[in-house]
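Co-fold these.
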Amino acid sequence: MTKSLPINPEEARAPRMIELQDIPVNQYQKTVKDEKDNFTKEEFMGIYRDMRLIREFEEMLMSIKTTNSYQGMEYNNPGPAHLSIGQEAAAVGQAFYLDKNDYIFGSHRSHGEVLAKAFSAIRKLDDAELMEIMESFMDGKQLKAIESIREDEESIKELATSYILYGILAEIFAKETGFNQGLGGSMHSYFTPLGIYPNNAIVGGSADIALGAALYKKVNRQPGIVIGNFGDGSMGCGPVWEALAMATMDQYETLWEGDMKGGLPLIFNINNNHYGMGGQTKGETMGYGNPARIGAACNPRQMHTEAVDGNNPLAVIDAYKRKMKNIEDKEGPIFLELITYRFSGHSPSDADSYRTEEEKDAWRAHDPLKTYPEQLIEAGVATQAEIDAIDEYVVGKIIQSVKLAIDPVISPRMDLQAEPRAIEDLMFSNQKVASFSDAEPDMLQTREELKENVRVKQIARRERYAYDENGKLLTPNRRYQFRDGIFEAVIEKFYEDPTLIAYGEDLRDWGGAYAAYRGLTEAVPYHRFFNSPISEAAIIGSGIGYAMAGGRALVELMYCDFLGRAGDEVFNQLPKWQAMSGGYLKMPVVIRVSVGSKYGAQHSQDWTSLVAHIPGIKVVFPATPYDVKGLLTSALNGTDPVIVFESQRLYDVGEQFVKEGVPAEPFEVTIGEPAMRRTGSDVTFLTVGATLYRALEAADKLQEEYGISAEIIDARTLVPFNYEMVIESVKKTGKIIVAGDATARGSYLNDLAQNIQNLAFDYLDAPVQILGSRNWITPAYELEDDFFPQADWFIDLYHERIAPIAGYTPTNNFTDGEILRRSTLGV
Amino acid sequence: MAVPVIMPRQGQSVESCIIGEWHVAKGDKVSAGDKLFTYETDKATFDEEAPSDGEIIAVFFEEGDDVPCLLNVLVIGEAGESWEEFIPEGATADGAGAGVAKTEAAASVPEVTTKAEAAPVATTAATAPSLDGEHPISPRAKGLAAKHNVDLRMTAATGPKGRIIERDVEAAIDAGLVATTAAGHDYAAGVAGSGIGGAVRVEDLAKLPELQSLEGAALIDQAVLSLDETEYTDDKITNIRKVIARSMHASLSEMAQLTLNASFDASNILAWRNRLKDLKERGMDEKLGLAILDRIPTINDIILYAVSRTVKKYPDCNAHYLAEENIFRHFNRVHLGVAVDTPRGLMVPVVRNADLKSISQISAEARDLAIQCNEGSINPDKISGSTITITNMGRSGVESFTPVINPPETCIVGVSSTYEKVRSGKDGGIELYPAMTISLTIDHRALDGAPGSLFLQALIQTLENFDLFLMGS
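Predicted complex below.
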């Protein structure tokens, strides 16, 4: 969707061949002896030490998981532990060149990558920087915990090594002194000060998140590369494919300009251990032979895809050296397959019934912890005694870490009885950060030039209150619309926060399906505002990674119905990372979601309830131009994930409630506070989203025809939600209908109703009623009035279940019998 | 050929009827037109007649059973003929109303309520009884009723499914139905009230288990209020009202009650009270050392006091008439029964030896007893042994009424509201004066109208000259 790149039919229809280059596999076959001149002895020995530390760390966990003891110390660890025994060379080889500015993301099996990356980064930092990190991270909590061994350490780097081993192990053991206060655990242990970003318990979950971090690095001109680590099993996951698609978009080369032109600093690193749990990816569950085949297909550059021997640390180091050069040349992203093997089961509870002992034995001959030290001795780099000394050192180091981590005094667990709000306080960060960078924002128009922006001029001609001086409703073209509120909130933020990027489907040039973004194309450069592929998972997931890395993302799902396509990202990733980091990460991601109508079963659903159900996301549903501008501004100023639902029925409504009109300058509407739309005395309508306007219609009719006075409250926000106004209203009226467009069964309306009933039971004159859509597919537009709540539904419900109206005949059936009948049938 | 006889549907809103009395039994020969059984709706009692000649070969229900309309009740045929095919749902054996419900929930046909696909009906005031015969009530309406002391038994239920809602309580308040407090949640149909006016007293509730029988079930209220706004309003008869009606009727039929009404000029007692108030306002209580100013007696206290003194001269009025024991027991002392409304029902605590007590003592004691009754902490000894009872409807705007005697007493003194009355003035014109009515019900078995009216007159004179009376006593 860009006029600058015409699609030429002659070219499109011309006969030709798409040529694929060969994909190198295991081309590097050198040993220590071959590389003797290229590494120092310290580097060679360091590689061994790191691999050995990882092996011992994992075997310690295996011992604790299977025998409740390690080296005579008793401990029971009921939590998960997915071990990478056998894959140490891949982890250490990968980390060799990485420093703290390079970010790695991992999987459930990432202890090895985490430790290797930490050890590498420690080597590259000076003592002062290391002390600064250890003393400042969580106010030195971990450093205090290892206080008792501090004086024994020979150097700051040794202390830092102990610090990392302890912090990760305490985290695995769910201790408050873990790097994430014990809230991440084995599958989500990480340490961002050294560039170690979250591992992910969802297979392939890190792919689009890593993509987002790479976007952050690129757009904000930050040093370092980003590596997404996942296993071969993840190659069956849709979001991984989506991440590959979005990471290899042509526009980085064709449309992004200046220093932004060029590929992402991103490596998709597949640790191919040949099993996705028990499913054998080669020969059974996948058809690629090697995952590298997939990477090579993604773009003409074939992502510089290569498969290398992941059991040879030197092969991995060699590959990384070359791939990091590709990235420096802006030829990213890279697809790298590291061929390896895990000796341990998927987890200690895995009995390995899907493979033979013969197979495992065969691989033991290729165990890097066997072959690499042999090479060291063979090449004359080390003696057996030196190898033995390292082994002894490693065991001592791990014993020390275990001793500290299992000590209930040094390493206590979070006490939720003593501090019942400890986790509660971490669910949202609730901060206000106007900008995440001091840099000058990249814009195509200055603020002065913006006055001539086509959209800005259009808005300037519109009245900011929907009625003229005679109380007549202005036509859509004469009034400031809901979509104008979106535009004003967003354009302001683009000037204020240089890290803000916005993307989604069909946004640039077109202005989005509902023209909310019309005018942004002229004002904002490509790298801050672009069209994504049709990859909802990657749209949301990359936003998460972008925010995790330090920026602010505004992403969009064109239809609420597409939420399902981003289910893992919205339900498992976005809401979790603030609390799972122990409060260390912020998640300033705002998702705009358009709720449809007129477009049938897969384009007209209100899924606010699904999102509201998941702890850790703020959910807003503005229904007026004033509110969408104010709530979006609040969301964009905040540090929490916010999903802004927008009804497609409302994009052209004017501001009917705030008589002063929608202010031109920025302002905030507090997230979590409902709004009184009309006062009344007989019944309260609490509405969610666009239902507000049908409630108003019902209120008019009730007043005019039956003398019943309805009070109307617009929820505006679902999570969080302050009930005070509603409870006060119910104390007055004694009756309430909670209404929204979501299908009624299991909807958030029920949650609202339940809480109102709890909080105002003694004031109720009738059970709290909810009014949602029918539990059907959304039918065609022409049939929608029988599906979505209409004005007369309010009155029918009031008559049937709250207070019968003399002389009234309802047309909709809200009787007991009908409720039972529908429930029995599940409709 | 065997012919079943169904329970007829007497009107569209009637869902079931109670079998009142059987006129035939299984095996009886009947002719067409013979009375088979009587059955009751909440509005009336009907007789069902035999549609044809024959023998009663099956009876499915017993007296008191609440039978859903259109169900087979009995079968007429020839001896030995098969009738099993006519067994209605809910009755399993001949002659036994087994399984037939005593409650509305089971008496209604389940399929109707659970599988109804009927379009909603434009009901404006449909009511239906709940399981225990009471109407459900919204929390809000309940709170409002408690605040205003509304008698929920008298309240219409216009909410969905017969629920009493706020507007019903508001209507009751507007209608002044705030005089007595319901026995409410403790009350159950079928309890015969032994209190004043047949009200259910606490001790009556103790008899509940044995009385919760067919008669109780028969009282389950199924009335549906049909409303024709232009002509008239049919209000539902509540269960408690039915019980009261029966008890009152029993009381009246067993005794020979006669009520005498007389109004009097309340100027004197009102002026007397106002004078006390005035003194108190001016701080004279301390200066004069008058205990009476600590708590100024209420109108009711004044009447209690007047009765305690006046009745002494009319021993037949301060007596128990124990007909079965052939005893007419006259008391030496006056023990005043004082009707008190409580959340648990009407209670009658007793001010003992009232004739020996000052008005202040009576006032204080009556107040304490009322509090104890309301709190439920009253000693049972203090709610029995009265010799004459005073019941006050002064708060409810009643001009006069017929108090019902608290057996075995011979009299009850009813006090109504004060209201303005006209009379010819001294200058020949018309003047207004505050009037009150004393309604004295006497047991005509124990005393005649004349002595009764003498007591009433004496009481009125006492009250009309209350300040002088106090001085003289």
